[in-house]
Amino acid sequence: QKEVEQDPGPLSVPEGAIVSLNCTYSNSAFQYFMWYRQYSRKGPELLMYTYSSGNKEDGRFTAQVDKSSKYISLFIRDSQPSDSATYLCAMSAEGNKLVFGAGTILRVKS
Amino acid sequence: GAVVSQHPSWVICKSGTSVKIECRSLDFQATTMFWYRQFPKQSLMLMATSNEGSKATYEQGVEKDKFLINHASLTLSTLTVTSAHPEDSSFYICSARAPRAFFGQGTRLTVV
Question: Which pLDDT does position B29 carry in this prediction?
């Protein structure tokens, strides 16, 4: 079993839809949770960073962490074609090394 | 957020030659940097952790003599792919800071 599971998609939605991206994990030592957006042939861009259970909102993005269920989510409201990218969840324990999910390909159709 | 600059963004080299990729932290000092490799439509695979002033720590299965890492200053880490072969063609990405890592733009290496 992988430490971090993420559905690779692709996930295709119409413009304006609410997008839900999810990851599950098995290592209870993970304390830091990140979501990255990666456009084709570019480095990942940090979108959200959180270290506690609950919700964190930034503009159209909301990150949700449920440590008891070992489940994290990223919600994108009012999705735009420019949101089309690969979304990677990543998490880390105290030792700093990041463990990534497989990445979900998102396509927002105009 | 912090800025990490990676150079070059793409490179084509002949089989058997060596290629050096630079990773710089522009507005902060990074005692630790990370080097990843990414194959098409796959996630990032950690290759090694670069430590300023000391030897890099390589992940299992990564050849340290093939992928030379040097972290001579607090703002610069380099990855040299030695005697490159076509199977080394990939997207290489560096990052700095942890756990909230910031990534460079990536380097697409093509070995012909």
Answer: 87
> Which of A38, A39, A51, A52 would best serve as a mutation to test chain B binding (most B beta carbons within 10 A)?
A38
Instruction: Pick A42's closest partner by Cβ from B41, B44, B106.
Output: B106
The phi-psi region of residue A28 (left if phi > 0; otherwise alpha if psi is between -120 and 50; otherwise beta) is alpha
* pLDDT for residue A94: 74
pLDDT at A69 over 90: yes
Give the DSSP H/E element, type plus range, for residue B102.
Answer: strand B102-103
Q: What is the pLDDT of residue B1?
A: 66
**Predicted local distance difference test score (pLDDT) of residue B90:** 96
From the list A37, A28, A6, the residue with the least C-alpha distance to A108 is A37
Say whether B42 and A32 touch across the interface (CB within 8 A).
Answer: no
Q: Where are the beta strands (DSSP E) in chain A?
A: 4-5, 11-14, 19-25, 32-38, 45-50, 54-58, 61-66, 71-76, 85-92, 98-100, 104-109
